[in-house]
Amino acid sequence: MRAEILIQLGQAKLLNPLYLKPDAPTHYHIEVPDDALLDARDYLEEQPRPADVATVPPARPGSLQERLNQLLGPLARIRPSASIGDDYQTVQDAMEERYCGR
Amino acid sequence: MDVNTHKQTDIQLVFDTNVLVDALTARGQYFACAVDLLEMVRNGKVEGWYAHHTLTSVYYLLERAFAAETQNRKTATDLAQTLLRELLQFLRPLPQVGDELRRIHSMPGDDLEDLLIVHLASSYLPNPLVVTRDKWFLQHSSLAAAHPKEIIERGLTAWQSRGQPIPFADLTTQQHCIRPQLERNMHRVLHHGQYIMGPEVAELEGKLAAYTGAKHCITVASGTEALLIALMALGIKPGEEVITTPFTFVATAEVIVLLGAVPVFVDIEPDTCNIDASKIEAAITSKTRAIIPVSLYGQPADMDEINAIAARHGLTVIEDAAQSFGAEYKGRKSCNLSTIACTSFFPSKPLGCYGDGGAIFSSDENLAKAMREIRVHGQEKRYVHTRIGVGGRMDTLQCAVVLAKLERFDWEVEQRLKIGARYNALFAGKVQTVTQRPDRTSVFAQYTAFIENREQVQERLKAAGVPTAVHYPVPLHLQPAYRGGCQVHGGVKTAERMAQRVMSFPMSADLSVEDQERVVAAALEVVRN
Fold first, then answer.
1. B435-492 pLDDT, tens per residue?
2. Interface contact A84-B133, CB threshold 8 A
3. What region holds the PIN domain (chain B) (predicted)?
4. Which of B403, B421, B443 is the last residue before a domain boundary?
5. CB within 8 Å of chain B, chain A residues 28-67
6. Are B235 and B381 part of one and the same domain?
7. Could you tell me the CATH number of the domain that includes residue B363?
8. What CATH number did the domain enclosing B494 receive?
9. How many CB atoms lie within 10 A of CB B17?
């Protein structure tokens, strides 16, 4: 069957719920015309995961980075990049969780 | 928050959400560039600002990132808050007054968070640069914006403003440097509502007295009011004489005449333009009651000599320190060099408010009591008027403004001294300027030179974008209102000659080296030709 979806704020949502059989696949592909897509909002394209992820950020003595590493403790590590869209989605999710009681 | 550091550039960095999160979580390829920029802010090399409404997003992004890694919401929340607190140690909030959403409805774009950043930064900062990874700022906003990597690679000076008009006294830069303190102080007054004689009045008086070393400080409605109240406290009567300089702002003589007394003008020194102490004693008569030396252009007169003359003849000395708050004379602060001193907080003064204001200083208990009472209609206690007084109080709001400016004042004085010394060096041997005596400092309320063909020079400098001013073009004994009401002792030819030659150049604590060099280059070009 064909399902109708609405793409809003970067997310696809079914207009009517579909209830699948337990053994049915859960991933489906949709095709969106390329000219309907906005360009990425990020200034510079970043590699999906920098090679040195999970290492502690290098810091000079007395530097701000040293202070941040100290505050972060075991969580002081280089992390993969996130796009503007990723951030937007994360904040949306946080808001939804907070205000919709999800 | 350090407001006292000299910035290397006149731009103000405004940090977007994504860059702050990159820096705080070491995220992506360019996080180190973001951290480096924040480091520059922390070290006072450039101003760093944030829009308050972005902090919620920063917080959630931090909290989510740490929660995913630790599986512990409490740890994630605490860490996010700790990092934000660290950031707010050195970043300043863009002020919001509450009507911004109404104002941005006509701006192009649909992202309220970004539109608000544009609106706030362009409303409050003279030369903002948004630090962001978001292309929207580059392509759609009216603000300058750049990726942290680009700023680090090109250097901050690539965004420096160029060719802007040079203000004669730069109050704009000063204001945005202390904007958070100003708003905090002014909001405090709005909340407690004690607009007259509120707690800020006593707080300011205490701080100013401590700064100068005088026992008492009495804030008043203006520098003129300060002089008037001082003379009233001395009981100056009609027909009595007060010795002063003719080369000053009219208020110095105006208050004498207002009380029916007679200003007796004594000539000035040709190199400092201050009253010539060696000529005062000859002007003293049986009617003389006081001497008012003016610390012109921010430099005290020869106060030891003047105080000694006054002591010999039983006179009172009132330092007219309207231009010299912050200056020193033999290691003592201006406003604590004589029995009474009066200063002004006119906005362009070295320490100014946002309207009229002034202060009187004295270590004499009786005079201080009298001046406090005269300030409030001669009132000893509520509705008991034991003297004739005036309505001369300084508004609480203006005191709140000066309190905010005081937080930066030491740095500003230091800057004024440096800028004055740099002018001296650049003009040395080419343009004659007002001399600073080695036993005192000037806070350079004006930086003044002696210029022939002054009007022509001013016109040509104006065309070159360099504003100038004349303090003062006509000595007071030649002013129409004073020709008949004053005395001139022994001729005041130096004052008359200097009035035709003095010309002041742009001067303020925030005058950049680049602008100062522009001023001097233009001046030397004009004077040479």
1. 999 999 999 999 999 999 999 999 999 999 999 999 999 999 999 999 888 999 889 9
2. yes
3. 13-121
4. B403
5. 39-44, 46-47, 50, 57, 63-65, 67
6. yes
7. 3.40.640.10
8. 3.90.1150.10
9. 28
- Per the CB < 8 A criterion, the answer to whether B421 and B190 are in contact is no
* Residue reference for tokens 């100038």: B468
Measured CA to CA, the distance from residue B262 to residue B284 in angstroms comes to 12
Asked if B126 contacts B426 with a C-beta cutoff of 8 angstroms, the reply is no
d(CA B148, CA B83): 20
- pTM confidence score: 0.78
Specify the range with the lowest mean pLDDT, choosing from A86-95, B367-376, B395-404, B409-418. A86-95
B268 and B195, same domain (yes or no): yes
CA–CA distances in Å: residue B464 to residues B168, B423, B468, B502: 13, 18, 11, 19
- Structure token digits, residue B177: 């440097």
The position carrying tokens 């300043």 is B92
| B268 and B347 together in one domain | yes
Whether residue B166 lies inside any domain: the answer is no
For residues B191-201, average pLDDT:
97
Contact between chains at B29 and A46 (C-beta distance less than 8 A): yes
